[in-house]
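[09:14] KT: can someone run the structure on this one? pasting the chain below
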Amino acid sequence: MTKTISFNDLRRIKDSLPDGSIRQIADKLNVTPQTVRNYFGGTNYEFGKNCGVHIEPGPNGGIVVLDDTTIYDMAVEIIQCQNKED
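[09:31] RB: done, structure tokens below
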């Protein structure tokens, strides 16, 4: 399933993740942490892969189309669990 959000919203989610979450997501999906960072707007493809994220320039940092929402869903779940604990 695809999802369309603003680039700023995608970065806000990444910035809201607690320390260690990138590695936790990477370990669960058997990908490199850099691949997860690339999903959230990183561009280091030497150590990570592209994860089906398409960014179009525009307001609010542009529009991001996520071909696969697995990483997004895991990140949102981690943030929700963290907020319940706080």
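[09:33] KT: thanks! The first strand starts at residue 3 and ends at 6.
[09:34] RB: yep, looked fine to me
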